[in-house]
Amino acid sequence: MDFLVLFLFYLALVLIGVVMICICSKTHYLKGLVRGAAQIISYIIPECLQRAVLKLLHYLFHTRNHTFILLHLVLQGMVYSEYTCEVFGYCRELEFPLHYLLLPYLLLIVNLVFFTLSCVSNPGTITKANELSFLQVYEFDEVMFSKNMKCSTCNLRKPARSKHCSVCNRCVHRFDHHCVWVNNCIGAWNARYFLLYLLTLTASAGTMAVVSTVFLVQLVVLSDLYLETYVDDLGHFQVVDIVFLIQYLFVTFPRIVFMLGFVVMLSLLLGGYLCFALYLAATNQTTNEWYRGDRAWCQHCPHAARPPSAEPQVYRNIHSHGLWSNLREIFLPATAHYERKKN
To answer: Which residue out of 154, 165, 179, 185 is catalytically annotated?
Structure first.
């Protein structure tokens, strides 16, 4: 039971940490904490080890590599192997509907298709050949995106909503972010694939969590375990409660309970990120624009130039044109419309 408590405590810490990072990512608090932690660690860890860690982090997060793709496939393979070997077999013995048990596999196939498309598709790389057409797609707001700005690396004029990716070393139209899990930038041309990949991945994790939970509940109900009593450490008879049931299931089916804990945590994390991605899609924002939005007006309008009584201005998104138009732009990128008109 001690291990189970520690495991649940660990899950809670991970979730709280992720939420705190999401909240603090747009403020200077997180950077200050990271800087302070780095200074403390620099006094403890030897310099050679620090250099090795920095090189490893640079390779993992600042260069294009297939490490996270392989890790993604290995984790997915392990979870589905566990589901197939343990949950699927027991559920068949309990005569669960077959289509109900096969749903995670169907979602896996669809997910792998969109995962592959997210990995290999062109996100909207800006080149000399398409530079002029991209410049005419979005309006410049003169706050976050200004006219006649040039990329110092690519030596190309920067269309509105574009950004140079330092990892891929290219400018990307309607740049959202660089995703290490697909080893590719997410931009105008592959945002739809990434959104569907994220949706099916969340759905597959959630479906496995539901099937595993239903199996364990069914097992408890069929065995009438919740009606039993047990002797506690003081020698008193106690009615079986939820804590005892979890302990019993963890001892009896440790692999299934551990897998259930993992997919539940994964479902919550992916579900939270999916909601954020859907919010950005519905409001026609990118992750890059959302992150920079609160500071865009501050940089454009200094505090000294603003009257003390005036309310601070916030960035206004000029590209949002209603829910359906915003979603249509994700699945039918604006460049496609322009090229069609041109032809």
So the answer is: 179
